[in-house]
């Protein structure tokens, strides 16, 4: 039954798409076949069989059922499915405007990043980079493994009201499934200094949505971190459906520079993929001295 519902939803979405683009029925049929076969692959590879040294196998992207504008936009996420309820009623939601933080002696984030293979995927909402196992961080005595990182334009978080050109979210998970996200703010810098990690990721952008493209080169995420690793921290949520809470956010204070060309490439793919600000609701924010 569930498959039938998903299929119907798929068909509806495809029909709507076809209506928009005036695609002939054959094309529609072919696209459905493609989508179904991708789905089967996704199911087959979804088992947690991550071998060290190889990029995490990406699960095939689901059909787009939410977005950033119109009827599928952030104001409607909770209406799209009951699983998204927290997007509307949660009181620990992200992003927020970071201000009035308590300036304290915050423990340094101990990054354990290493040169790794990676794959790049356009999941329909952003560009996502899946990195080989073995990268992680330790904070407050807890080790979190890096799962993936992705981008938003403009930055979702604001600091004292100020938005950055872009942000990279590095998503980590501990053994109990708790999430910790490190946000690296990205801002325009000199045009003769391309950011090396971004350069490698953009060079490996896949031509098609959904499928992850395994890069033939490696990246070192230490190169994506700013020199000053002071940060703001608060408890929040995923900024995309289902908006799950209990996420430890660590927003690095010092932005990292991208060239205008590097910013321009992402802007072409995703001109706006930032969730609006959410209420602070009296949450505590701490920041490094
Ligand atoms: Zn994000």
Write up what this structure looks like.
- The protein is of the alpha+beta class and 289 residues long.
- The protein has two domains: 46 residues, no CATH class; 236 residues, Alpha carbonic anhydrase (Carbonic Anhydrase II), CATH 3.10.200.10.
- It is 23% helix and 29% strand.
- The protein has six helices and 16 strands.
- The strands form two sheets. Strands 2, 3, 4, 5, 6, 7, 10, 11, 12, 13, 14, 15 and 16 form a 13-stranded mixed beta sheet that branches.
- A hairpin with a 5-residue loop joins strand 10 and strand 11.
- Helix 1 packs across helix 2.
- The longest helix is centred in the N-terminal third of the chain and has 21 residues.
- It is globular and about 45 Å long.
- The N and C termini lie far apart (56 Å).
- The N terminus is likely disordered.
- The site of zinc ion has 4 residues, from strand 7.
- Zinc ion binds next to strand 7.
């Amino acid at each position: 039954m569930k498959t039938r519902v998903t299929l119907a939803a798929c068909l509806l979405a495809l029909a709507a798409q076809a209506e928009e683009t005036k695609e002939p029925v054959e094309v529609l049929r072919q696209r459905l076949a493609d989508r179904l076969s991708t789905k089967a692959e996704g199911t087959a590879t979804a088992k947690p069989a991550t071998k060290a040294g190889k990029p995490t196998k990406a699960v095939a992207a689901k059909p787009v059922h939410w977005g950033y504008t119109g009827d599928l936009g952030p104001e409607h996420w909770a209406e799209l499915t009951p699983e998204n309820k927290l997007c509307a009623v949660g009181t620990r939601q992200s992003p927020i405007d970071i201000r009035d933080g308590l300036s304290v002696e915050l423990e340094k984030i101990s990054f354990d990043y290493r040169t790794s293979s990676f794959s790049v995927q356009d999941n329909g909402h952003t560009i996502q980079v899946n990195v080989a196992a073995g990268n992680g961080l330790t904070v407050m005595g807890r080790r979190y493994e890096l799962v993936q990182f992705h981008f938003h334009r403009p930055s979702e978080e604001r600091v004292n009201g100020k938005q950055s050109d872009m942000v990279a979210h590095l998503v980590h998970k501990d053994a109990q499934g708790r999430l910790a996200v490190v946000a690296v703010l990205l801002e325009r810098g000199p045009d003769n200094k391309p950011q090396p990690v971004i350069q490698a990721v953009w060079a490996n952008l896949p031509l098609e949505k959904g499928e992850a493209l395994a890069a033939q080169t490696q990246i070192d995420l230490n190169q994506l971190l700013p020199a000053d690793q002071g940060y703001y921290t608060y408890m929040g949520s995923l900024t995309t459906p289902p908006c799950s809470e209990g996420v430890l956010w660590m927003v690095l204070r010092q932005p990292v520079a991208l060239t205008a060309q590097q910013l321009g490439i992402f802007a072409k793919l995703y001109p706006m993929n930032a969730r609006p600000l959410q209420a602070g609701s009296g949450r505590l924010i701490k920041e490094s001295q």
